[in-house]
Amino acid sequence: MTSAGLFDGLTATEREALLRASHEEFxxxxxxxxxxxxxxxxxxxxxxGRVALDTTVPGRGHVVIQTLGxxxxxxxxxxxxxxxxxxxxxxxxxxxxxxxxxxxxKVLADQDxxxxxxxxxxxxxxxxxxxxxxxxxxxxxxxxx
Amino acid sequence: MGHATIDTDELxxxxxxxxxxxxxxxxxxMTGSAIELAELTDAGQLxxxxxxxxxxxxxxxxRREDDAMFAHSAGPQSWKTFLHPPRRKLWSSDTxxxxxxxxxxxxxxxxxxxxGCDLAAxxxxxxxxxxxxxxxxxxxxxxxxxxxxxxNCTEPGEVCFCxxxxxxxxxGPGADLTLTEMSDHFLVEAGTDAGRELxxxxxxxxxxxxxxxxxRSALEMAAHRMGRAMPEVDLRALLAGSRESSHWEDVAERCxxxxxxxxxxxxxxxxxxxxxxxLTGDHAERWQHWSSCFELDFSHVHGGSVRSSGESRxxxxxxxxxxxxxxxxxxxxxxxxxxxxxWCPVGxxxxxxISRLAESAHD
Amino acid sequence: MTEPMLPVGYRVIDRTVETHDSATIQLEPxxxxxxxxxxxQFAMMYAYGVGEVPISISGIGDDGTLTHTIRSVGxxxxxxxxxxxxxxxxxxxxxxxxxxxxxxxxxxxVVVAGGVGLAPLRPVVLSALAARSAYSxxxxxxxxxxPDEFLFRAELDAWTARDDLxxxxxxxxxxxxWDGTVGFVxxxxxxxxxxxxxxxxxxxxPEPMMRFSARVLLRAQMPSxxxxxxxxxxxxxxxxxxxxxxxxPLLVCRDGPVVTYTVAEPLLTVPEL
Lengths: 145, 363, 273
What we know:
The structure holds three protein chains of three kinds. Chain B is an alpha+beta fold.
């Protein structure tokens, strides 16, 4: 998912509205963007760097489930109740990202269902890609046991 | 040079001249309950007066009312047994890293009684085993040493469909001599210099126009007496488009995946290898033997077999024979001899399966 | 002409353990050398008294030696994997088609490897590095099950350090201490900004991994004939005589192992073909 992808099909006015709901953010290595179980109030478009999604396992600490990189969209729990993060997120190295305010996105979508539908489609495409990659990993293809 | 005529008895001379020239003469002969191909030392070993009755999963000998020697359709063997032997040593090696080729002495075979279908099959084997970048040197040597006496087939059987495959009943080019068996003589045509030289050494006379006319009409009648016909469809395209047809499941319910069809097929060429060592472990050999795409291990890659179901293996065999053979070797792999029908223990008939596939393709 | 079914004796002169089940062996001819192998081609390798299997070359071999990386998955590959320096191996080849990386000159190269699929692709990267200026961007994406299961790990680290090569290593299952990418190879691949008409991709790994990766590239508008994959099937002869390696119309030993995705796509989606 690239920013170009996120804005696909949007009018200039809609793009501006989205950008008004966002700000640029910079993270240092190890900064945590959010924690598992926390309120999901934002989503991120990663401009640069890598973000690790993780969870905690007793005895193993934070276990990384997946990493995201430049162009990836991070976070969709803000769209669906109960609006809680399912995993945590940590910056690996320095990270630059555009952060969107979920409350404002929802207001925009409620006001303009066409925009809401386009955004939902883009998010679904992200979810689908990530689901398929995860399924590919579940196949454990490089094992021969 | 036109046709010649030889008396029936003169076939004995032909065999003796070939033997005198150093050929091992291979031809049809009765062995128990079938007509097989074996070394002949005398034309008297030919199955004079015997015919066969064939059908799906069926092959029976019967006594004929005449003494015809070549009036029996294809038996359980084909000539590939001699050109591409069932088992052959490839090399041996000692632990020093040297590998010695098998250095087999090339047998000089004279094949006597090769029908049109089987002559075409020899040509297909030549394309596969001798026509690529890396020819099979054993096959090539055996093939180059051949003397072929073909017979035009005037007695097609119940499972035959060579006319619809364009390989018979008249034998195509490639034979040194081609015989047509008539009631009291053979009509002979020489196709090569070697054939002409040999004909010159046996008692013959020019054929009369009546004789050539009678032979021609016997062949024309034979073409209309085929027990079967391959449906007139584009087989290559039909099978390429039928990979995911549900009909394969239907065949698989009948097919035992025994591989008989591949063993009797005159063009099935697949082989596998076997590595052996002696008890000391200081001497190793590699052998090649016939293999079949119906074997589960045939498509084994680490992790398992690619084609584990019976339906996928039958699909592989039929599709290869009639369709992907074109992609791989530039023609069809089937010559219409009907052996796979006769020797299938459950009587699966490929011409029938093609009809069914063609019907389901139209649905 | 030499007899292509007759192995030529080579001796193992070096062995490097790559992972818990993979090793790279280097071999030199005892008397006679085989013709030079090109990237993507394979040899039929005979372990004395055990048997013979096809193995792609994993090195360039401009000094007359052969380099093969072998994963121990069966009796023959175990014997080859275990072969210590001094062991005699019978080798036939070179067989099959090549990646022909030189044909991609002027383009961006994208190399995507999964597991031991990196071995047949290593010669592509080495030859690209040897003629680096002939290519624009060179990207290597390598996936492994765990961080311990990368082949050529020291070399991968050296490649990563180069500024004329974009290397991304990704694992399915991270382990403590791994701070790299976690995800299937399709994820970093999807993040690439490709110039679809000026990129050539080389994919090697398990078939689903190649299919999934090719789909990402097709979605990025890459023409399927710019995507090359390496196929694997059972092989006994390596020279189009034994019939084992058929995949639909292909004899993989002769028409492959390297084919374009235009050729492979319709064949890789039919079960049990």
